[in-house]
Write a structure and sequence with these properties.
The chain is about 85% helix and about 0% strand. The chain has 5 helices and no strands. It has helices spanning about 10-30, 30-35, 35-60, 65-90, 95-130. The chain starts with 10 loop residues before the first helix and ends with a helix.
Length: about 140
């Protein structure tokens, strides 16, 4: 894996920003959502939380902290997907209107999970290395 120097280089951050942009546009263009201030606020906060937590966790420069923030980010991604699905149930949106956002959120959740798995392995490798090097 290439060395990543800033969170802006992370593909998961880029995809999270794309998802948030899509959600924000949906909230502005969809009349029903734009008038439901509580729902609109909830989905927008959840959407932005995904990339915010990726960025914040990365900035700690510590795999354990980054992993913890990725867990939060993954949870927020699920929250966005839940809100999108709920918007269909209450006839705010059609499936076609949010299909791209749903697909991106599913893919992003898998990618965050894969990054978490990678970090867990790095954390375990570091623990094993530190135990075997003791004088």
């Amino acid at each position: 894996m290439a060395t990543i120097l800033s969170f802006e280089d992370l593909e998961i951050w880029k995809k999270a920003q794309e998802l948030a942009t899509m959600v924000y546009r949906l909230c502005e263009l969809n009349e029903k959502i734009s008038r439901d201030f509580s729902f609109k606020d909830q989905i927008k906060r959840a959407a932005l939380s995904v990339s915010n937590n990726i960025a914040e966790g990365f900035e700690y420069s510590n795999n354990s902290d980054f992993h913890r923030f990725l867990r939060i980010s993954k949870g927020s991604c699920g929250e966005v997907r839940n809100c999108l699905l709920f918007s269909i149930k209450i006839n705010y949106c059609s499936t076609e209107e949010i299909l791209d956002s749903l697909e991106i959120s599913k893919a992003l959740s898998r990618q965050i999970g894969a990054t978490m798995k990678y970090l867990r392995q790095k954390i375990m490798d570091k623990k094993l290395t530190s135990k075997t090097i003791k004088p």
